[in-house]
Amino acid sequence: MSEHADEDGVDEVTSAMLTASRLLVAISVRSLASVEDAVTLPQFRLLVVLSSQGPSKLVTLAGLLEVNPSTAMRMVDRLASAGLVDRQASPHSGREVRIQLTGAGRAIVDDVTARRRAGIAEVVSRMPPGQRHALVAALRAFTEAGGEPPVPALVQLGWT
Known about the structure:
Shape: elongated
CATH superfamily: Winged helix-like DNA-binding domain superfamily/Winged helix DNA-binding domain
Order of helices and strands: HHHHHEEHH
Number of strands: 2
Radius of gyration: 19 Å
Structural class: mainly alpha
Distance between the termini: 28 Å
Strand content: 5-15%
Number of domains: 1
Largest sheet: 2 strands, antiparallel
CATH class: Mainly Alpha
């Protein structure tokens, strides 16, 4: 951190972001409570990746989740047993298997995302409108600085 971090407001912004991230984590945890008997958090992350990426190879999923392929395979096996994902032979190679969400898997992602969206909307609705606009600009600048690609306003994402 630069010696002028306090003068530049970096420490103040960092503290505010840490506090906001605690709130976002709390909202996320509450949104997952309805499915905690069905899937673990890592399994839910796999469902979200499939929801956003579409059918994927096991090695791709493992890379995106930053886990070993064997760990990803165990998660896929459990999710397949629960009827939340299925495996299909790739149309490009008979040896390649693609993993995809089932309707039940998509329903879990959609339900948790809707709950998360409602929790965030409840907090945002209590903010003055002018601060909402400033927050949007600040969050866009933050995600751009972090290298996160923009998401269209109507796209709903779960936990990735």
